[in-house]
Amino acid sequence: MPATEAALLDYAHELEALAARLGLEYYPVDFEVVPNNFMMEIAVYGLPVRMPHWSFGVRYIHQLILQGMGNSRIFEVMFPGDPCHAYLVANNSLAENTLVAAHVLGHADFAKNNHLFARFMDMAGGRILQQAAARARGIEAAIRQFGHERVEAVLDAALALEPHIDVDQPLYRERYPDKVTPAAPRTAPGSFQQRYRNLPGELTRERNDAPGSATLPPQPECDLLWFIAQYAPALDAWERDIFLAVREESFYFYPVFACQIMNEGWACYWHARLLREADFLPDDLYVSAIKAHSDVVRPFAAEQQMALAVNPYHLGFSMWEAIIARDGLDTARRICREEDDFGFVRNYLDTTLAEKLGLFVYETHEDGAIKIAARDIHAVREAILAPKYNYGAPRIAATHLNTDGSLDLTHDFKSDGRGLDLGRAERVLDYLARIWRRPVSLTTLSETGHTRVLRR
Known about the structure:
By secondary structure, this protein is an alpha+beta fold.
């Protein structure tokens, strides 16, 4: 083992001991130092081993271009679970990787104690990496048996619908009942109703208590991956398994997505505190690590004086520092357990902090000008949270499975508040029609605000 890596592991062990003394609680963390190209693959695939698909190659090229331009740098990737798995980049400096090790311990504490992360652990267990690798092997076996083109068509559709799950439902759901029994009358008929029924010429209707066929779905179903896996009329078992596999991974990723500001800010708070109290670190390493901390939590890029996108590290770190300074660490831990980014930002980003951080809502004009539209705290909060609604995807529901097997989808644009990219919607509909193997329609709005139905 290289001397630098050995020193890093020693520092990581001492940081874990310090974290325990400060009250952090987490599942064991497996640290691994990996080459930069492997870290790139982990970042774009989302998991160390995952189902093969061309879209991940596109993401890899995009990330490579960003990194080459100096606009992106990956310091670490941490996967919550029991144990947690943390990957650090080999060409980071020792100071940077020491900072990252402390940062990971903050993530691990958050993942064990936050309610969303705990809910997924309760539903699916904590061995996501092993499960993902097993699914990847299953898909490779399907490619050998059924051919690359057929398997890729299923993956195209499943991954295109990756964010279309219902996080309020359990991971493992039963199918809808095949039959429905008419509900009993709420109350016995009153005297007036009985007299009305006894009028000459009135017929007494026989009540039919026989079960009838259920309408599918019985209410709009937003969990499209689940609905397709259960009700697509011509899918084979292995095809349904792919949809359920993508759905399970999407459930796994949701807490990371929904708690990004909280989670990154919590990890930044703890890496800063751990480094500050780590008297075993050499002075020069500490100074270099704190410089790296400043780079991570800066509000904007080096030469800029204004940013048009929120840095979740900076915002989350600033909010946790303010909460802990005002209300104490016990209150912060309660918030960490109970909230996601929606509650965190709405309840704890106040006007004073927003003004201190220089937060505002902007609008763009046809001539390319960018102007500040609002500094009102409610508008600022909602602008930060807007990309997070419904996993960042438009709200699409399966609304009717017709007797001929055709499927009706509806864009809930009234509650969604967002239009569709119609070109992209048509491509996704093409993917879906190829595996549904019956007509599929999607009702949405046109660019002019009129109802439009896309059919495949």
